[in-house]
Amino acid sequence: MFGILDKNTELTYRILLIICEIFGIISIILVSLFYAQGLYSNYYYDWNANPFSYHPVMMTTGLVFCFGNAILLYRTLKSTRKLIVKILHAGFLIISLTFALVGLVAIIRYKMSRSSIHFISFHSWLGLTTLILFFFQWIFGFVTFLFPKLSLKIRSAYMPTHRLWGRIIFVLAVVTVIAGLSEHGYGSSFFTTNDVEQKRRLIINFFGVFTALFGILVIYLVSTSDYQRPPDENVDK
């Protein structure tokens, strides 16, 4: 697929990483524009009057962009001490979870302000499942690899499972945010023949495209063995 650059795997990784980050940043910009005051007079950011406005941008920033970068850290920082990378990985995931929790509070506040029923859509079920899995994945990873740090035998046995579930949860997060904004669009007037909402409709569509591309590249980079961090010479037992 990337045969032209395959002779220099480090260069290939850096180029693809830059492209991946560009896709992720564009996704955040697009979802931020969705409620930009002045761009659309009827829609705006307001934590009290319109808490839902913070939900899409918080979830995209946390569960997609920060989470994706946390997964890639071990391959991006190959020459950095593994303990430092572990701490950064855990830190990025805390930041990711913090954004996601703000997004969760935003949608709960919105539902409560309208006396709406909570967690009745497929998107909400998928989102709640993703958050719960994310939390337990972080707890298990922290206990196993950082503190109190289990034995080398247990860490080695658990590592494939940890990597697999990290990818699964990330894919679930990408699907959830795309499905959520699409669901919101179909529940409103964004996808009707009324062209008043044409710009917002285009934002949703391009957001979906760039978010999906970001997710695909993250999974590709983390799944390609050529970009894997080389084994440490001295294993900390």
From TrEMBL:
GO terms for molecular function: metal ion binding; oxidoreductase activity. It holds the Pfam family Cytochrom_B561. It is a multi-pass membrane protein. Keywords: Electron transport, Heme, Iron, Membrane, Metal-binding, Transmembrane, Transmembrane helix, Transport. It is found in: Membrane. Residues 19-223 form the Cytochrome b561 domain. Gene3D superfamilies: 1.20.120.1770. It comes from the Eukaryota. This is Cytochrome b561 domain-containing protein. The chain crosses the membrane at residues 12-36, 56-75, 87-110, 122-143, 164-182, 202-222. Its cofactor is heme b. InterPro entries: CYB561/CYBRD1-like, Cyt_b561/ferric_Rdtase_TM. One of its GO terms (cellular component) is membrane.
